[in-house]
Amino acid sequence: MPHERRARLALLVLALLALSAILAFMTLGARGNWGFVLPFRGKKLLGLLLVGHAVACSTVLFQTVTANRILTPAIMGFDSLFVLCSTVLMALFGSTMVAGLDPRLVFAGNVLLMVGASMALYLWLFGGEERSLHRLLLIGVVFGIFLRMLAEFVQRMLDPNEFMVLSDMLFASFGTIPATLLGIASAMVAGVTLWLMPRLSRLDVIALGRPVAVNLGIRWRAEVLAVLAAVSVLVAVSAALVGPVLFFGLIAASLAHLAVGQSAHRYLLPAASLIGVTMLVGGQTVLERVFAFNTALGIIVEFAGGITFIALLIGKGRR
């Protein structure tokens, strides 16, 4: 079938691009002892792979259950919750004590809190059959705005020096992922990925909408809650590793739809993951080897993501 051949060819091209970006990241500008260079860059590479895969896949999954290709998990207030947690932590303990905390403990606390809060919201909103995703999205927007305002209120009471430290913590940084967190983050992302693999056909049915999915035998409430739980874990891991990221997943998901030309998740999820990895690894390579760290990858990614979001809105409006 032509559509199948196009999707497979797109995955092959994207895989080659991702491998090229990885090879360039690991070898360009390398001098000295390779026994030191490869493990040092390998840890940074693993962090970029985890974040690129997690953010891209979480966005595709969220767009599937919401049946909307311009939404991202950030609309549910995940990033705002992360900002509030970091702000309260800084207000209670101060920058000196926060810097001395075990990063694995902070990471686990952030992930557990974000996943717990999101699942409590999901279970409450889906407590009855009359609850809808539209209500979930509306309350998620209000929830995110409330958390953001609460975090800003606490930030106004911080010492200026501690506020500067907090601002640095909250800025998405793809080049300083703590190596001590890679083990637990890899296990969580791998667990979610393995859980998703045998459910790709169910995701295709869910994408058809609730009435069709229910008629085809899908337990809508249970399946949607399970997918949203997977989204919560992926978003929590990426936010805890690099900080809040608003529009990066939107770019990866949009380009994946354009590349494969269809909505089958056996092609869409791998394509989004490969695009996310290529963007982060390739962007970080250019940042380090061409611009010599004179700019931040997070700024470039968010700027491009904002333009993509506006373009999608304009396109939806014209249709």
UniProtKB/TrEMBL annotation:
Q: Which Pfam families match?
A: FecCD (PF01032)
GO cellular component, alphabetical, reads:
plasma membrane
Which membrane topology describes this protein? Answer: Multi-pass membrane protein
Superkingdom to which the source organism belongs? Bacteria
Q: What is its main location?
A: membrane
Tagged with keyword Lipid biosynthesis: no
Which PANTHER family does the entry link to?
FERRIC ENTEROBACTIN TRANSPORT SYSTEM PERMEASE PROTEIN (PTHR30472), PETROBACTIN IMPORT SYSTEM PERMEASE PROTEIN YCLO (PTHR30472:SF19)
Query: Which family is annotated?
Result: Belongs to the binding-protein-dependent transport system permease family. FecCD subfamily.
Q: What is this protein called?
A: Transport system permease protein
Lineage at the top is:
Bacteria, Pseudomonadati, Pseudomonadota, Alphaproteobacteria, Rhodobacterales
